[in-house]
Amino acid sequence: MLHCLLDYSSTAAAEAMGQDPSKIRYLVCSTPAQSRTAARRLAPSH
After folding, report:
1. What is the pTM of this model?
2. Where are the domains of the chain?
3. Per-residue pLDDT for the chain (46 aa), expressed as one digit of tens each?
């Protein structure tokens, strides 16, 4: 959610969660495209 909804980089999301950036990249890549798109739709309009 940090990456898709709040537009955090993989590195920033990993730092916020105490994870390795490669873990975040793996999770983002393994998430179905439909789920990533749905998460982006939740973001408030700018």
Report:
1. 0.61
2. 10-39
3. 787 777 888 899 899 999 999 988 888 888 787 777 777 777 666 5
Alpha carbon distances (Å) from 45 to 2, 11, 29, 30: 16, 24, 25, 26
Task: Kindly state the tokens that stand for 34.
Answer: 């439909």
- The two tokens of residue 44 are 């408030």
- Distances in whole angstroms, Cα of residue 14 to Cα of each of 9, 17, 34, 46: 8, 5, 22, 25
**For residue 28, what are its two tokens?**
């983002």
Closest CA to 10 of 37, 28, 31: 28
Burial class (CB in 10 A: 0-12, 13-18, 19+), 14: buried
How many whole angstroms separate alpha carbon 23 and alpha carbon 20? 5
